[in-house]
Amino acid sequence: MVDDEESERSIARRILQSEGCTVLEADSYKNALTVFEQNRQGVDLLIADLSLPDGNGCELALTMQQENPDLRVLFVSGHVGAEVCRFYGLDVTDLHFLSKPFQPAELVNSVRRVFAASMPFPRMVPKTRTA
């Protein structure tokens, strides 16, 4: 779970732990990469805020999926929405996205949807831009 707001991470952690999930936390892009490197084999899902103080969730997901192509991704945001990913040439119609603030059941249902997808979807491969 990557979010620069400690209270939001804490709420999400408690919700997910109550569902039996192990939750690793980071408060920035850089710290998320460190946590990922230390726990690479144990990370199945990235839940990332789109707006981070030292990067953004889309770039983070792209970087992590280079190391783990099976990584599943759920983006969360309270204001930017999935439009940030469109800037990076990603197909935003296929992204798993949850608007903040969210209810506990919404987070749980979103995580279940991501894992129920037939493949680690979306495959975060940037579209090639044509001139």
Derived from helix and strand composition plus strand pairing, the structural class reads: alpha/beta
Average pLDDT works out at 84
> What is the helix fraction of residues, given as a range?
25-40%
Q: Total helix count?
A: 5
Strand content: 5-15%
Q: What is the CATH T-level topology?
A: Rossmann fold
Q: Spell the H/E element sequence.
A: HHEEEHEHEH
Please describe the biggest sheet, giving its number of strands, its sense, and whether it closes into a barrel.
Answer: 3 strands, parallel
Describe this structure in words.
The protein has 5 helices and 5 strands, in the order ααβββαβαβα. It is of the alpha/beta class. It has one domain (6-116): Rossmann fold (3-Layer(aba) Sandwich). It has helices at residues 6-18, 29-38, 57-67, 83-87, 104-116, and strands at 45-49, 51-52, 55-56, 72-77, 97-99.
In brief, what are we looking at here?
With 131 residues, the protein is α/β, with parallel strands linked by helices. The protein has one domain (6-116): Response regulator (Rossmann fold). It has helices at 6-18, 29-38, 57-67, 83-87, 104-116; strands at residues 45-49, 51-52, 55-56, 72-77, 97-99.
